[in-house]
TrEMBL record, chains A, B:
Keywords: Cytoplasm, DNA-binding, Iron, Metal-binding, Repressor, Transcription, Transcription regulation, Zinc
Protein name: Ferric uptake regulation protein
Species classification: Bacteria, Pseudomonadati, Pseudomonadota, Gammaproteobacteria, Chromatiales
Gene3D superfamilies linked: 3.30.1490.190, Winged helix-like DNA-binding domain superfamily/Winged helix DNA-binding domain
Listed PANTHER family: ZINC UPTAKE REGULATION PROTEIN
Subunit structure: Homodimer.
Source organism per UniProt: Thioalkalicoccus limnaeus
Source species, domain of life: Bacteria
Recorded family membership: Belongs to the Fur family.
Localization: Cytoplasm
Gene: fur
Chief location bin: cytoplasm
Pfam families for the chain: FUR
Length: 165, 165
DNA sequence: GGACCAACGTTATAATGTACCAATTCTCAA
DNA sequence: TTGAGAATTGGTACATTATAACGTTGGTCC
């Protein structure tokens, strides 16, 4: 999410919520903005720290988790299960479950919405008579850039977030 | 995993480890057996409780996590990310990453190894120049049985494990 | 204004996972 | 067989992630 696009993204989220009769409150918007400034997933406690940094008011875990719950419900963010972390949704127009390419080198996450994957998952579920309600698809590996870099096989670099203390 | 099949499964695991020069010790075998007795995922602390129940010796979390780490490395169990839990692998002959159909009704998990899914994931990764090292594919929903049952839409039933305190 | 309800503040605690070091057990060569 | 070294386990403490419970605030509608 680039800085100029951030405002636009937040406004789009605001509009979406209004349309649904939901309220993107100041607190929720702050959390969304924190996630919107990075393409890396952030843990709840990293978000908490960011909130504490940007305001004098004290903030506790439930506040963050409540905001995250709301944003998840409205498809404005996604949860990355394998990292216990959250990331802004890149196309929140319609609710969906994306697929995530998670680079263990640089920490960047690419969100996909691939029909072939969704079809194959749907087929497999159907074959078992299973009704899928929440698909979790996360590929952990190395992005193109990190594969090209010689040091790529070792520890992650890049900004703090999750996993890089 | 049925009771008569359990011994056979454990022995297969033992043979696999031997072949690789790894040691399926008594402790590791105990953990594997606990997972083998259910088709439901178990949290680390549920396994810990089971261990404590079946022996007078005291046991601490690191013991369980070390055993789980070993079993994961050797493909004898899988980790279910969305549940923070572990489940026995149904076909450990070769290392692999399965796909999991997780019923939120009865808690049962079906492990798949579907070529269409794996192909579509591979395609998507390749399109992005991404090298997938650890795919996480978990579908949370309702199994055929639970869909058929009228009460199915509400809370989970069945044996303890994860999520049913 | 007052009743209501959603959102938020606050404290405490549960659940999951790991760092660290000591004690034990196993293996293999001398 | 025995002792050195490696692998495994025991055990304490603590870090990280998440939620329960209850009171307070603030906006909305009559």
């Amino acid at each position: 999410m680039t800085e100029p696009g951030l405002e636009q993204w937040l406004n789009q989220a605001d509009a979406l919520c209004r349309r649904r009769g939901a309220r993107l409150t100041a607190q929720r918007r702050r959390v969304l903005a924190i996630l919107g400034r990075t393409r890396r997933p952030l843990g709840a406690y990293a978000i908490l720290d960011a909130l504490r940094d940007q305001s004098a008011r004290s903030t506790a875990p439930p506040t963050v988790y409540r905001a995250l719950e709301f944003l998840l419900e409205h498809g404005l963010i996604h949860r990355i299960e394998s990292l216990h972390a959250f990331i802004g949704c890149t196309h929140p127009e319609h609710p969906h479950a994306g697929q995530f390419l998670i680079c263990r080198g640089c920490g960047l996450v690419e969100e996909k919405e691939d029909d072939r994957i969704q079809d194959s998952l749907g087929q497999t579920a159907q074959d078992s008579g299973f009704k899928s309600e929440r698909p979790v698809v996360e590929l952990i590996g190395l992005c193109a850039d990190c594969r090209a870099r010689p040091i790529s096989a070792s520890e992650p670099i890049g900004q703090p977030g999750v996993g890089s203390p």
